[in-house]
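Q: Hi! First time asking for a complex rather than a single chain. Here are the components, and I think there are two in total. Is that enough to go on?
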Amino acid sequence: MSDLLTKIAWPFLLSVVIMLFFQFQAIIFVWLERKVSGRIQDRLGPTRVGGKFGWLQTIADGVKLLLKEDLIPKDADRPLFRISPYIVLCGAFAAFLAVPFAFQWAAVRLNIAVFFMLAVMSVEVFGVIMAGYASGSKWALFGGMREAAQVVSYEVPMAMNIVPAVIAAGTMNLNEVARMQWGGIWDWMCFHDPFTFFAAIVYIVCATASVKRAPFDLAEAESELVAGFHTEYSGFRWLIFFMAEYASMLAVAWIATIMFWGGWSGPLPITQWLGLWHTNAAGDYVPGTLATIIGLLNFIAKGYTLIFVMMWIRWTLPRIRIDQVMKTCLKYLLPLSCFLLLGAAAWPLVVRTRFGGQIGGAVAAAILALIVFKGILSTPKSAAQGRREVVYK
Amino acid sequence: MQRLVDSLIGSWPQMLFAIMALTTVGCSIAVVVTQNIVRAAVWLLFTLTGTAGLFFLLGADFVGATQLLIYVGGTLILVIFGVMLTARGPFVQMKTQSGEWTMAAVVGLVLFGLLSYSILSTGWVKVVQKQSIEISEENSPTTTQLGMQFLGVPPQGSLVKRDPAGIGYLLPFEIVSVHLLVVMIGAAYLARAKRRKRAEV
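A: Yes, that's all I need. Here is the structure of the assembled complex.
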């Protein structure tokens, strides 16, 4: 009977837990999106449903969506129209299976976890294109085509920006990569060398584009395409698309968290100082249960922080045109990623062997300080000039 | 009851294999039979995903993920993209002539015969004996073995001798990738908008 437990019941239980989390995070994100967009646009956002902060707004939204009529257009390819939301959902959900939520806490401990996540998330695009085609609507078809062009292009620099971190870590196993970053903020992979630092930033840009968030949400583009690929969808099928979108946002944010931003460890090794770690039977210094749970909270908080940044970008920047999207990818991001890849491959051979390990962190921190202080202290010249032109013309 | 449960659990890899294989085969038949070209692409999606599932089941996680990334995430999307751009109206429904059926059947049977012959005539040796088929980090990382084979080092326990030239699969791989690059440049050259020569002033 123990076999029954380990081989069938346990994986099933894990899937159920992840599925519940998968749905729960969508509820939080919809609320967060409303609140963040409201604050950025100088509004309050939801305030009434469920108390002062509108906590239950998403539940109300969900009830509304469930009660909506499930429309299928006359010209639609009915079976394809029905299955495409599920294809999208399957892609996003499968990515969650390989995520190590905390030390050794992953549903499937894959040796190639990050590659697996990228691979299954690439299936999502197919569902979106099918939705666009099967709707039998011009808006939806255009949305689907833009999506195909955009996401397939952006997957290339996105994957290439993960490679610097893979080179630095020497493995694609997310659990191992996060384990290498145990300790303080100075041990995080983004401060390993300057190339991983820039790769971390370029990765977020590419990830935003590949989960089709603004300013890259050309597939939806409501001002020109009504709602893009999901124009004809309503009710629960539409809800599934959105659940998958938020889930894949979280998945790419977690890839970034593990590959660059320290995984489960906080900025300072506080749980180590508190003595919550111990040496296990194999002689490794590992976190105890409490430290693992704190790691889990760290991990979720970091994912949510990156998503907050994505929302911030979404509600701050205007949408760019499709030709600008493609130009950004092919002419700027792709060569930049190639350069970062070459640099990251050369770094351990050239600099690390001569000057030792910590120089990378020092250089990366210096660059970061330069960027931050230059940004804060100097007047944005181009903006000032632009404003003057508008005013005095 | 206990014995039934035990035998069921003992045979779960076989059961999973049967499900995956049946899905793959059934969907690939549907690809051929379907006349609507976009539906055929959807069946192809399930065929390719089933194949990836078979790879995962056999412990070849890297190959399975690559199958998903390249065939489903890349090739199939490009196919659909091409179909949606070109196949409007009469081309969406494909009518197959009986002559085409015959030709396809002959080619298919020849290929099937060739593959069956080579499968049956190979002297199969069990290279690695594993207790259970599980894709996890505890099992040997397949990427390491693949990388070693690229450099001409045979996998552990293999009967194949080390390649004396030490090239392995690296040279064929490089040749294929350069070939792909040439094809892409050629396609871009053919497909780009032709600029007319400026008339001399």
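A: Residues 2-40 of chain A form the longest helix (39 residues). Let me know if you'd like any chain examined more closely.
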